[in-house]
Design a protein that fits this description.
By secondary structure, the protein is mainly alpha-helical. It has two domains: 45 residues; 140 residues, Cytochrome c-like domain (Cytochrome Bc1 Complex, Chain D, domain 2, Orthogonal Bundle), CATH 1.10.760. It contains seven helices and no strands.
Length: 197
């Protein structure tokens, strides 16, 4: 009889235990929200957010990890549908000079006449971006990357133009001396032209 009474008392006490657990969870959530608000409102603005400052190694690793996972998760698994023909390379070169060289440098070295600091630094493409697949490069160029200075070109450029840019990026490691000289001249002329407008 005593065991039955104990079981009934335990069953009647169950809602009270659930309420107590829910209250503890609520207190932890509210405390976490207050702590988070404090960090965002008080601590974060005290950090150096300038483009010339170098972040701590942990922040750099975390940002790189998140960026790579985001790109790999969203990029289509595809190869460039265009062949690296002379005409496609010429068109890709023209697109690259017009839209990319201002930040990435005419030869992909990230050396530009801007003389500005970027953080994260502008991607150096002179090795042809070997760490990215064609589909990932397409996604980066088409979508852009928020808070990095990398604009998205997908809304204003047909896919073929973007694929041609990728062909040119893949060609950058094989630039001849003559091509490098021509690229620097083209980029300088474009900068001069843009400076007059």
């Amino acid at each position: 009889m005593a065991a039955v009474g104990k079981a009934m008392a335990g069953a009647n006490n169950k809602p009270a235990m659930i309420r107590k657990l829910l209250m503890r969870v609520l207190v932890v959530l509210v405390a976490g929200a207050i702590l988070g608000a404090f960090v965002v409102a008080i601590v974060m603005p005290q950090l150096d957010w300038s483009a010339s400052a170098r972040p701590p190694a942990a922040e750099k690793r975390l940002a790189s990890l998140v960026l790579h996972r985001w790109v790999r998760r969203n990029a289509a698994v595809q190869s460039n549908p265009l062949a690296p023909s002379p005409d496609n390379l010429k068109a890709g070169r023209a697109e690259f000079i017009e839209h990319c060289a201002i930040c990435h440098g005419a030869d992909g070295s990230a050396h530009t006449p801007l003389g500005a600091d970027f953080y994260p630094p502008v991607a150096r493409l002179e090795r042809g971006a070997p760490g990215w697949t064609d589909g990932e490069l397409y996604f980066i160029i088409a979508a852009g990357i928020r808070y990095t200075g990398m604009p998205g070109f997908g809304a204003h450029h047909p896919p073929a133009d973007i694929w041609r840019m990728i062909l040119w990026i893949r060609h950058l490691p094989r630039l001849s001396g003559q091509e490098r000289t021509e690229l620097r001249k083209e980029a300088a002329q474009l900068m001069e032209h843009d400076g007059r407008n």
